[in-house]
């Protein structure tokens, strides 16, 4: 199981973690409707926004974050104990945490069928092998080493087709790649990504 309580997700759920379990369940129902119907489910958010003294966009963001949380739980097929720990890490207190867990267990099958199967099929990562080459002398480089990384990225499709991609980069380029991958992983857990995937399914 691979559930992460990221800082971004904690921030998006911050207001929800302070609510009583009854109010939280209303948000859970709104999140499920958002998952079912997409943007058309946001028409009733204005009333909740007035009650909580926040904007409609704040309500939509919280429901989207809650959607993401429920979908990730379904995707990982997490155990009840692991889910309780995950919700605890997100900041939910005992009673709301139990209410959220019970809501998920009651609707897990629907969440999984609606939210987990993404209609996109990209090759998945299998392995990354690398080698460091250092050029220690040449006519243009007499007293300076020139390190270069040779990388082989192995991927596999859902049909089992394997492929290898050869890349070469210096240290500065490798650092840039690392930064881009870190940003991509952070974005993958954001509510915007969750919203985009939901629209792709609709």
Quick take:
With 202 residues, the chain is α+β, with helices and mostly antiparallel strands. Helices cover 56% and strands 15% of the residues.
Could you describe the 3D structure shown?
Helix 3 packs across helix 4 (56-76). The chain starts with 6 loop residues before the first helix and ends with a helix. A three-stranded antiparallel β-sheet has the order 1-2-3. With 202 residues, it is α+β, with helices and mostly antiparallel strands. 56% of the residues lie in helices and 15% in strands. 22% of the residues are buried. It has helices at 7-12, 21-37, 45-52, 56-76, 80-89, 94-115, 171-188, 191-201, and strands at 124-135, 146-156, 162-169.
Q: How helical, in percent, are the residues?
A: 55-70%
What fraction of residues sit in β-strands? 15-25%
Main sheet characteristics: 3 strands, antiparallel
Number of strands: 3
- Mean pLDDT, as a whole number? 80
Tally the helices.
Answer: 8
Order of helices and strands: HHHHHHEEEHH
Structural class comes to: alpha+beta
| End-to-end separation | 27 Å
Radius of gyration: 22 Å
For the largest sheet, list the strands in their spatial order.
1-2-3
Runs in which pLDDT lies below 50 for 5 or more consecutive residues are none
User: What does the overall shape look like?
Assistant: elongated
């Amino acid at each position: 199981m691979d559930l992460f309580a990221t800082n971004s997700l904690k921030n998006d759920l911050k207001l929800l973690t302070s609510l009583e379990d009854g109010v939280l369940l209303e948000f859970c129902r709104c999140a499920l409707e958002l998952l079912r119907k997409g943007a058309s489910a946001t028409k009733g958010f204005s009333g909740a926004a007035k009650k909580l003294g926040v904007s409609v966009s704040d309500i939509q963001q919280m429901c989207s974050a809650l959607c993401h949380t429920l979908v990730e739980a379904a995707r990982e097929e997490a155990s009840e104990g692991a889910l309780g720990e995950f919700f605890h890490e997100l900041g939910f207190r005992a009673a709301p945490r139990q209410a959220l867990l019970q809501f998920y267990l009651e609707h897990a099958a629907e969440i999984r069928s609606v939210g987990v199967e993404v209609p996109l099929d990209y090759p998945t990562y299998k392995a990354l092998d690398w080698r460091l080459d250092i050029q220690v002398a040449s006519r243009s480089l007499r007293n300076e080493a020139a390190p270069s990384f040779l990388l082989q990225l192995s991927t596999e499709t859902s049909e089992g087709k394997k492929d290898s991609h050869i890349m070469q980069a210096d240290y500065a380029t490798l650092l840039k790649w690392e930064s881009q991958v870190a940003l991509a992983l952070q974005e993958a857990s954001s509510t915007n990504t969750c919203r985009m995937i939901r629209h792709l399914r609709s």
